[in-house]
Amino acid sequence: MDLLVQSIVNGFIQSGFFALYAVGLVLIFGVMGVVNFAHGELVMVGAYTVWFLHAQHGVPFLWTILIAIVIVTAIGMAMERFLFRPKRNDPLGGLICSIGVLFILQIAATLIGGDGPSKQVPPPYQGTFVLFESLRIPVQRVFSIAVSLAALVALWLFLTRSKMGWALRAVAQDREASSLQGINTNRISMIAISIGAAMAGLAGALTAPLTNINPHMGHNIIITAFIVTIVGGVGSLSGAVLAAVLYALFHTMVTTYFSATIATISGLLIMVLVLIIKPTGIMGRSVSD
Amino acid sequence: MPKKYTNCAGLAGLLAALVIVPHFLKYHHQDFLIFLTINVLVVSSYRLVTLTGEWSLIHAVMMGVGAYASTLLTKSAGLSFWISLPLAGCVAGAVAAILCFPLFRMTQFYFLIGSFAAGEAIRLCWIHFIQPFGGTGGISGIPFPELGNIDFLEPVPYFYLVLVIVTLCLVLLYRIEKSRIGLTLRAVHWKAPLAESVGVDTWKYRSLAFIIGSAFVGIAGSLKVHYLGTVTPNQYGIGFMVFILIWVIVGGYATFYGAIIGVVVLSILDESFRGFEELRPAIYGLILIASILFLPSGLESVPERIRGWVSNRAAARNGPGIQG
Amino acid sequence: MDLLEIRQVTKVFGGLTALNEVSFHVKSGNIHGLIGPNGAGKSTMFKNISGFSTPTSGDIFFNGHSIKGRKPSEIAHLGVARTFQETTLFQELTVLENALVGAHKRAKTNIFSAIFNLDRHIQQECMEKTLSMLDFMGLAERKNQLASELPLGSQRALAITIALASEPVVLLMDEPFAGMNPEETRHMMGLTEKVRQSGVTIVLVEHDMKAVMGICDYLTVLNFGSLLAEGTPDAIRHDAKVIRAYLGNTEAM
User: Which of A78, B49, B201, C97 is the most exposed place for a label (fewest CB within 10 A)?
Assistant: First the structure.
């Protein structure tokens, strides 16, 4: 029973990260039509930034979070400007370019961090909340879920309350119709990838003290992001967040009671099932013929 | 007709060169040649899958299916290599046939992601089910082929074996592509509804291309493990899949030989980067991006481009002369 | 004899009734026109006959057998071919290759025949038939050009060639005269007549009233998804309901 409660709590904390990964991927795919295969590597760069500046050089943790966001956003913007924009009408070309970026970022991380064992960042916030005898949550995890939630709420406010957010959603829902209505696709794409990359950078920075950091950590992240995106419904941000919560709970449970590999295999199978039965995902609109 | 004869002569010359060359190479270059020849089969079989316009991300895993099948058939079931080689192809084809039911209900982006997910699920099964797949460490001690008193531990005899089988497979793949089936696959690619309207069952043809392509890459997988002697899940992951994509895209996919040019040129380039081992993936990444941006039709279009450039130059030089 | 029978076909999507209990018959050897104002449900009807869409209720019979719910490729095998709106061709293939794909029903092959060339005579025969078909449609000289390089009139002719190469009993033509100048239209009308004379029954959806009246033996008029009128072109021309539907209101008369 205690184990169950503990894993539910862990699942909820995990869902914050999953949502941050997926929201970025959904925004980039929805607005630009590009599958960003390097998305996991953007998260990895965020984590490496914190490791390098905070754990190696003693820069305060909060500052490194900001720097991580700035660096990853800059990488995302460069990808949009120099790769995705020239390949706007060639989704396959865009995808292949993102794979090229994936390689380059992995090698960059290897060059900075060396090839050795995975890096660890000592948690800047020590201590645990003891809710009751059997349920303890490290402060570091509480901090990360709080910041993730704040970021998601901020994104939600931006998308629903601002004019720019409205335009973003319009493009995500129907790219062709919006460009016909005179919305500047280049500008919107730049904003979409900036937000998506910023979320990835934030996720990477927050996850750094809680995980093993290595150049290949992006692989599991992109798989998670794909599962969450597809199950939630491609192009649906609220679907992605809901799916992130559900999948995080599911993944944590299965990991606790079986193994992480089984959890990922079943996640992938669920995703294939969703693709077959309802390709629009749990929150997607159904498309009539 | 004469062009056909020059092509045949060229191919015969190339084969003859491939028979002689290994004797003059160092040991590790002989190794390189074996893997390159196997990879030629990998990209050519992938080409068949992409003829219908669907880019799958499961081809590397299918090669792994063939590799694991061949490993288990020889090592656990005790079959001879000569039987397990074609069987490896059959197993990969059969797995592909089962996957057709879910996968080909999707197209384009969804197919891409769906095939990635299915492949990753298979690969995680190899990691998870230590019996019989050996987990992350895989399986080693895979027997070499036996035939009379030829020593297939040596690279040169093994290279000849690979050369014969790959050449045979390429001939078959080429004939399929140039046959009516190839034409129908291309028709499915360019306008699936129109093909449907004249009686083409597009689902069946997409599946057919996928199954045949997988069967051939399964054979490639078998050839690879019986030389390497080991098989691990990571050899056939998304990393290798990306290399397949790069070879095909950099080579070009308008013609049969485009992908082959891609794998040969890039592998030779790659071999010459051996000094900067750890930078190799990044260099590959840069080549990939550069070729997508600046050479979207691939290396196969280079001769045409040069021809166009030369004739433009000639025209520029002659132009004023004619007028004057 | 009724070759094609549409019986009480209804198609609803997204709460919208695109076809409402429409019934009509197509006689063998006729050129049958399916006309009506925009949004009348003509194209939806075509999609339902050719299998690209399935009726919500009702049934469609071809040669006395129900074809409702079959896949397009199966319906094509039974002998119903169609052309598409605009010019739908295999743009990246040559004219000859386009027509050869059309001959799929006769010439399709299995993997072993393909590799070992076992059905040489069938492929040879198919090639000859296709070449004579291109000749018949006036495309023989352009056979090695890419389909995308053809002028509009020839593209339409090629679209019909692809459909004809499947040796259909019924040919459904979706707006064959759209976007054509009078001369091209006349040429296309000639071709259509020629196809009918070769023994193929034709159903066509068309906006060009002059062409429709000039070429069809029988007309079915749809309006807002329902059957409005049926009859010979002469009868339809003088039908008050049809005139009203086309002009929007009676005062305009």
Answer: A78
